[in-house]
Design a protein that fits this description.
The protein is an all-alpha fold and about 375 residues long. It has 11 helices and no strands.
């Protein structure tokens, strides 16, 4: 191959992968929110196929019927879990609402005591400038309260306006999952006929790699959550916090959820503690949040990268680019997608060079 041909081939490959990257960016940016319910429904349908095939032989029912029942069962379990936590949250909110007068009275007394102490301190230190400083502090506090009230109002309004769309998305997810689970064999047979035979092995290999990498990806974030749980549990036990293990477990679960994190619980908790006068306790929670966050940010690229087979620097780069381009969703998905594509490219390269590819977790290749 001549130098010109090598350059031409390089430019062709570069243009091809550049277009793939552009299309992926556009799909993630503008189409993901529209196809996400179908993606979740498809994943649920695919996940129940092997259990359905096993149970169909035991109960003497068609695989399609068993798969449909399993998908419905999965959705019911999710619904029961959401209902359980929603009920617990509602009961807790009712308790908070019933104690609201006493709570606000205590907050008012603590705030007045804090402002009185602040005035005394500034009067003794600053003399004639104390009035200006006190007025500045009061104005800043009023502005903070106004911003907080505005934020809460916009949050409640956004939740109210987005609720119908969210419920419709949930309905589409359930229906698509049921339809795909019931007609999974027909759908896969159609795809096998529609795709050229030379591409089928690549599709099956890509699917097997994606399943294996996804399990390792979940394992990596589960390990991060376990580390966060251990840190918070040790701290709560050291300060003799009531229900230390339970509170640490709840915060660790919140930390796993997209968008949320330990700061969703620890920072408001610390703010309330500081307002009511528990200064040392509040600053302790802030320190705990900073420590857990620093450990997670340092360990995430290494742990997640090791689980999915990425170098820590490459995992960190994928996390950063995903966060900047697509937010928290991109931060979760881009490292996984990078690992899948790299493993797929490695396997194809080994196959093209006559070397045995790295085995994947899914060793069963459907017939063509």
């Amino acid at each position: 191959m001549t130098t010109i041909e090598k350059k031409r081939r390089f430019l062709i490959y570069f243009a091809f992968w550049f277009m793939v990257a552009v299309l992926f960016y556009l799909a993630m940016k503008f189409c993901l929110s529209y196809i996400f319910p179908f993606v979740i429904g498809t994943l649920a349908a695919v996940a129940v196929q092997k259990p359905a095939a096993f149970l169909a032989g035991k109960v003497r029912l068609k695989k399609q019927s068993v798969a449909l029942l399993l998908v419905i069962g999965v959705y019911l379990l999710i619904l029961l879990a959401v209902a359980f936590f929603a009920t617990r949250l509602y009961l807790r909110l009712v308790t908070v609402y019933s104690n609201a007068p006493q709570t606000f009275e205590g907050l008012s007394e603590s705030l007045n005591a804090f402002l009185s102490s602040f005035r005394k301190m500034t009067d003794g230190l600053l003399g004639e400038y104390a009035g200006v400083l006190n007025q500045t502090a009061v104005n800043a506090f009023n502005a903070l309260v106004g911003r907080l009230t505005e934020w809460l109002s916009s949050l409640i309004g956004g939740l109210a306006s987005g609720l119908p769309g969210f419920l419709f998305s949930v309905l589409v997810t359930v229906i698509s999952g049921c339809y795909i689970a019931a007609d999974y064999d027909s759908v896969t047979a159609f795809l096998r006929q529609a795709l050229p035979e030379k591409y089928l092995s690549g599709v099956y290999q890509l699917r097997a790699i994606a399943v294996g990498q996804l399990s390792r990806f979940v394992k990596g974030y589960g390990l991060l959550s376990l580390i966060a749980f251990g840190q918070m549990a040790v701290y709560f036990l050291l300060i003799h916090e009531p229900g230390a293990l339970k509170k640490a477990a709840v915060i660790a679960v919140v930390d796993v959820l997209p968008v949320f994190g330990v700061g969703t619980v620890l920072l408001p908790w610390a703010a309330v503690s500081l307002i009511v006068g528990r200064t040392a306790y509040g600053f302790g929670l802030v320190a705990l949040y900073l420590f857990v966050t620093l450990v997670r940010n340092a360990a995430e690229p290494k742990i997640v990268g090791k689980q999915v087979g990425l170098h820590p620097v490459l995992a960190l780069l994928a996390l950063f680019i995903g966060l900047r381009l697509f937010g928290v969703t991109g931060m979760l998905l881009l490292p996984l997608l990078t690992a899948v594509l790299l493993r797929f490219a490695e396997n194809r390269f080994l196959q093209n060079n006559g070397t045995t590819a790295t085995p994947t977790t899914d060793k069963t290749v459907p017939p063509t």
